[in-house]
């Protein structure tokens, strides 16, 4: 019974995502990868592969993070790389706010799960058509430590999306 309920929950979520994506013609690419048990391991690379044909129109690129109440931090550090079809690569270390000063999670959602749509690149024009690969991994560390936290708890899904600029 519990297994069937869990399966139905995932099916409902998938249908809801497809509904919202199909209703938004601004989105040109969107994908998510679930993080097993909500524990994002250090150096666990999450990758998204996408094709670009339009090298003229600017696009907004977003990192999408779904976190739950187990996420114990007010910010998130990530290391990203955007790999171009010709082998060029852009690597960034980025920080995002995940909670306000009172400790309330930012993002949207009515339950314990919050969805954060974080700007990665604004008005990006892709210089070449072809296959691109976007990689992301967490870079969270405890204060005063150099080594990454072995496991970042509370991150359920990591996503990447591209939207047309209006």
Could you characterize what this model shows?
It is a single chain. With 166 residues, the chain is mostly beta strands. 13% of the residues lie in helices and 47% in strands. The chain contains one helix and ten strands; from the N terminus they run αββββββββββ. It has one helix spanning 2-22, and strands at residues 27-34, 39-41, 46-52, 59-67, 75-83, 89-97, 114-124, 130-138, 151-153, 155-164. The strands form three sheets. The chain has a four-stranded antiparallel β-sheet with strand order 1-10-4-7, with no helix packed on it. β5 and β6 (89-97) form a beta hairpin. The protein is globular and about 40 Å long.
How is the main sheet built?
Answer: 4 strands, antiparallel
Give, in order, the helices and strands.
Answer: HEEEEEEEEEE
Report the strand count. Answer: 10
Number of helices, counting only DSSP H or I runs of 4 residues or more:
1
Summed over residues and divided by their number, the pLDDT gives a mean of 89
Give a short synopsis of this structure.
This protein is mainly beta and 166 residues long. It has one helix spanning 2-22, and strands at residues 27-34, 39-41, 46-52, 59-67, 75-83, 89-97, 114-124, 130-138, 151-153, 155-164.
Supply the key terms.
166 residues, mainly beta, four-stranded antiparallel β-sheet, globular
Write the layout of secondary structure elements.
Elements: H1 2-22, E1 27-34, E2 39-41, E3 46-52, E4 59-67, E5 75-83, E6 89-97, E7 114-124, E8 130-138, E9 151-153, E10 155-164
Antiparallel strand pairs: 1-10, 2-9, 3-8, 4-7, 4-10, 5-6, 5-8
């Amino acid at each position: 019974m519990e297994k069937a309920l869990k399966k139905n929950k995932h099916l409902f979520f998938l249908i809801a995502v497809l509904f919202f994506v199909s209703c938004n013609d601004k989105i040109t690419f969107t994908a998510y990868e679930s993080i097993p048990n909500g524990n994002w391991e250090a150096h666990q690379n999450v990758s998204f592969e996408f094709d670009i044909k339009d090298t003229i129109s600017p696009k907004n690129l977003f990192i999408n993070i779904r976190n739950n109440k187990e996420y114990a931090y007010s910010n998130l550090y990530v290391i990203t790389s955007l790999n171009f079809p010709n082998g060029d690569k852009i690597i960034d270390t980025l920080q995002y706010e995940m909670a306000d000063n009172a400790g309330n999670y930012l993002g949207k959602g009515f339950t314990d799960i919050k969805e954060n749509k974080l700007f990665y690149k604004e008005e990006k024009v892709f210089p070449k058509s072809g296959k691109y690969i976007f990689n992301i991994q967490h870079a969270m560390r405890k204060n005063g430590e150099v080594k990454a936290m072995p496991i970042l708890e509370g991150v359920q899904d990591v996503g990447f999306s591209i939207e047309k600029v209006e």
